[in-house]
Amino acid sequence: MSKMKTKSLSEKPDNALDYGEGKYISKFEYVCVMLSRIGGMFGTTLTGTLAAAFLHELYFGPAGVSADEIAEILAVQSTLTTVLGIVIGAISGIIVQKWKTRWGRYRHWYIICLIPIFALTALYFYVPQGWTIQQMTLFRYGIACSQTVFNAFNNFGQNIVQVISPNHKEKKTVATVWQLSYYIGYGGAYIATFVYGLFSDDKNAMYMTLALVAATVTAFGNLMCALFCKERIELPKKEKVKISKALFTLFKYKNYRAYHVMQWVNNFAWLGRMSTYLAAITVGSSKNLLLTLPTAVGTVVGNLITTKLSKKYEPTKLLKFCGIYSPVSAGILFGICFIEAKMGIMFFSGWNSIFFYAFYFLFGVGIGIQELANSHFNVEFLDYLEWQCGERMEAIQGIVPGWINAGCNYLKELAIPFMIAWAGYMSSAEGDLVKTMQAQPTYLDTCLKILAFLLFGYTLANVLKAIILKTSYDIEGEKKEQMYRELEAIREQRHLENVGLATDEDLEIYEK
């Protein structure tokens, strides 16, 4: 046997490293990751949370469609996209897991989906003129179904951040940058609508212009990320995990079950949608920023706090803390607003609004802690699956749990339009929800109900996740350190097998 063939596990391949050491990612790659995330979130925020009131105010409202009728249209749309999402989710996951290029498994999907994502972002806010209500409805269904298909594949490009470095500490730094970029894109969409609204009252032109900007930034960022960000966790040349078996056998792992139950209960959080609905009837849809700025600033502060605390506390500990912090901050905030509303005072305007905005800021701090801690937690969980299975499982680990999550999300999407209709929300025939709603005698009660949905749905999700972590998840402390030490050996063994240098002795050592 040649000297090369006797190479053992003590000799490290290029992507192996001592536990917690090593830097791989260039500054330029960080820039590419940021551009991709900022553009993606700018577009997602426009077509997601900010578009929540678009159908009532600018699309169906002027055509004379009532809030109850819009709820029924959205119910059908949710049914279509849920069923399609379940099918496409499984198909896309299997294709991505099986098809590897010289670039890796994820990067090329950003390029493949580049033009469709650009077109769908731009078309989302197109309001056809002279169409019947039926034609306008079918157009919405077409856009929603197309987004479901192409987003399923495009979103796999986001997994680049999970395989960009074999160093889990460096990946957490990437996750922090990714999360901060999320808020730049998210906040940028709110700022853009606010600034545009200062110079023009044409909301249709505003949405279409910003959609084109978002589509352009997203396309540029995704292209940069695909071309220049490397996938550094080596993939096996020969798959060891049988996909059809893995789809269901992953449930045997307690931590896998716990993780996905956490994803399911997260459907109780409808923070962005309810925030947009509330803003549209209080400060106006083009001035969302005025209502959301305090919680946005609080979220950034929470991110910064988590960046500091994460050096000492594990993400699971921080998520458990949020299970206590959220109900306390939400309870105080709602209590203040409830008292003011019952006194006939608008809690979001005038001198007294300082109480609302101050405690909304504190509520936002909790959001920031939870979301960045959750990003770090995701890094550890996906590494945990590699430790258990011997391969990266991002593409397929969520397929079957995703079916359940799709069902939960379907019920959520089905419920929201009816919830806001029950709360007294109306469509606006004149294109101004603030005037329409303020003319109603139940205006403040409607505001309170939307605020309650916003605060307590999110709070319930955090409390349930904290309970699940406390009772059912155990990758912490020494066990987590052991996981990363063994994960290093797994990756090293994979490299030796790929280059044909693994010996029987290596395999024996690895099995032990």
Can you describe this structure?
The structure is a single chain. The protein is built from 20 helices and no strands. The model is unreliable at 1-20 (pLDDT under 50). The protein has helices at residues 27-47, 54-59, 67-98, 108-112, 114-123, 133-154, 160-163, 168-199, 203-228, 243-249, 254-265, 271-282, 288-309, 315-342, 353-389, 399-422, 433-438, 443-472, 477-498, 504-511. The two termini are 24 Å apart. It is 71% helix and 0% strand.
SSE order and pairing:
Blueprint: H1 27-47, H2 54-59, H3 67-98, H4 108-112, H5 114-123, H6 133-154, H7 160-163, H8 168-199, H9 203-228, H10 243-249, H11 254-265, H12 271-282, H13 288-309, H14 315-342, H15 353-389, H16 399-422, H17 433-438, H18 443-472, H19 477-498, H20 504-511
Helix pairs in contact: 1-8, 1-9, 3-6, 3-16, 5-6, 5-9, 8-9, 8-13, 8-15, 11-16, 11-18, 12-13, 12-18, 13-15, 14-15, 14-18, 15-19
Number of domains: 1
What structural class should be given to the helix and strand makeup? mainly alpha
SSE string, helices as H and strands as E: HHHHHHHHHHHHHHHHHHHH
- Quickly count the helices: 20
- Given as residue ranges, the uncertain stretches (5+ residues, pLDDT < 50) are 1-20
Helix content: over 70%
* Biggest sheet features: none
CATH superfamily: MFS general substrate transporter like domains
Query: Roughly what fraction of the amino acids lie in strands?
Result: under 5%
The Rg value, from CA coordinates, equals 24 Å
- The first-level CATH class is given as Mainly Alpha
Shape: globular
Separation of the first and last Cα atoms: 24 Å
Give me the count of strands: 0
